[in-house]
Amino acid sequence: MIVAEDLLLTREGIVHLLADADVEVVAQAADATRLLDLVAEHRPDAVVVDIRMPPTHTDEGIVAAGRIRDAHPETGVLVLSQYVESGWALRLVEEHPEGVGYLLKDRVMDGAIIVDALRRVIEGETVIDPTIVARLLGRRRRDDPLATLTEREREVLALVAEGLSNRAIAARLVLAERTVETHMSAIFGKLGLEGSPDQHKRVLAVLTWLRA
What we know:
By secondary structure, this protein is α/β, with parallel strands linked by helices.
């Protein structure tokens, strides 16, 4: 694992949380350029990177995430942000729809959440912060590609966007796992995503939902 964050105290805090969860951090970086060098050197399972890095503190983290996924597709990337920026989350997932995650920093202070998110991106899943999911879910839509989905199907798809498995969704909604599988099949059918591998369909469904 590599942690990239320009603020020393924040970086050390993340490293400490990961260490407490028995996650080995092989290197740390204070800027995106150093991060890319370290990834090439260590080939980690995953990287945690702040969205705003030196020198401009704008989108260096997103750019670095894309370069890492292009050059090292086996490395998952978890991007952290201090602010709710749904546009950045959409950009990240559109450009690299698998093995990436986007979480708000205040949620990272819960070690279990960051470890679970890292596990998911390492496995090739997509993880979006629930706060961003809620904001996107609540916005008004004119030409809504999801208009044919039922309220329950939208709820299930929102949890898929958070990176939850069918089993985790069933537990969250107090449903049988088979019921969730039925909802997922209905979602894939209504969005025209049949005929693709299941994980790929899940990513495409999340992208459709984010773009709506």
